[in-house]
Amino acid sequence: MVLAELNVRHTRRHMPTRRVALGDAYLPTSGPAYGAVLLGAIVAAHFDQLEEEQQELFPQFLRDARGGLGVPRIALRYRLQTDTHGLDRSRHRIVNEDANGPGYWVLELDVHGRAAPQVLGAVMAAASLPPSARDIVFRAIETAAARPGQLPEGFVVHRLYEGVPGARPTAPGTTWRPYGNGDDANPWRGVTAERRWAMEVLGLRAGMDLQRDDVQQRFRRLLRLAHPDQGAQSTGAAERIAELADARELLLSVIATSSTRAARG
Questions:
Q1: Under DSSP, is residue 238 helix (H, G, I), strand (E, B) or coil?
Q2: How confident is the model at residue 265 (pLDDT cuts 50, 70, 90)?
Q3: Residue 201 — very low, low, confident or very high, per pLDDT cuts 50/70/90?
Q4: Do 39 and 94 touch, CB atoms closer than 8 A?
Q5: For the chain, how big is the Rg over CA atoms in Å?
């Protein structure tokens, strides 16, 4: 049973742009107030990974957010927006898994993305709640920021380093089947969520060796197919072209990093 959930939409880790938006959320603040617990845990898990300047700007941002946040706006050098098109997703949850015995609560933290969008997403979610529910949530966030790394007690913590297991690919035209947990047949096991997304956008299969020339050739071919001057529909063309460019830059960055490591090794 899901007791609380927050989906943060954000720029993929390797992209130079900095954008954050809210996805679906379930944040109850009555009773045990699992919504407040979850938002506080997200901030506690990520706050010490913020840049020094972002940590210094955070208290003022939090004070502003107590009265509600106008979006779009800039905060901690990120653009806060409502449009989620093309953005990655990080899902954080509190789950009661009765199958493992009574009182078995799981705190599920998606840590495959950058830290700042998760902290910003938590504050955006808090600011979106009715004024009567904000006080308990903001107190939880303030406490978490003052004690980074200290997660709430009584939870089994699962950190998702590759993103949500079995998540449907966001690349257009791709097929998907739900791989079970522990399924060794999953060809994407061990591949981070953003790298998988970029490979699928450019039509690369799991297990393929990434080569710079291959990535460039695939990008140019798909770019021609997506361009209205080549007969493609103009509706959605700009978004598709931007998606292809983002995927190319991400994979080229991965290739460059791997080459640097190989040279040092």
A1: helix
A2: low
A3: confident
A4: no
A5: 20
Q: Give dist(CA 48, CA 144) in Å, integer.
A: 10
- pTM of the entire predicted model: 0.73
Helix (H, G, I), strand (E, B), or coil: what is residue 60? helix
167-178 mean pLDDT: 48
Instruction: Please tell me the distance from the alpha carbon of residue 93 to that of residue 263, in angstroms, as a whole number.
Output: 40
Q: Which residues, 6+ apart, have CB-to-CB distance to 200 below 8 Å?
A: 169, 170, 171, 174
Query: For position 180, what pLDDT does the model report?
Result: 46
Q: Which two tokens stand for residue 203?
A: 């039509």
Q: Are 35 and 137 in contact (CB under 8 A)?
A: yes
19: helix, strand or coil = strand
Residue with tokens 């020339």: 213
What single-letter amino acid sits at 234?
A: S
Interval 114-146: pLDDT, tens = 999 999 999 999 999 999 899 999 999 999 999
What value does the mean pLDDT take over residues 153-171? Answer: 77
Angle at the Cα of 201 from the Cα atoms of 212 and 209, rounded to 5 degrees: 35
> Is 126 buried (19+), middle (13-18) or exposed (0-12) by CB count in 10 A?
buried
Residue type, 178: P
DSSP state of 83: -
- Rounded Cα–Cα distance for residues 58 and 49 (Å): 13
Residue 212's contacts (CB-CB under 8 Å, 6 or more residues apart) are 252, 255
**Residue 158: beta bridge partners?**
108
| Both tokens assigned to 43 | 């901030």
Determine which helix (DSSP H) or strand (DSSP E) holds 159, and give its type and residue range: strand 156-160
Query: In the numeric block, which tokens belong to residue 161?
Result: 């380093």
Give the confidence band of 45 by pLDDT, cuts at 50, 70, 90: very high
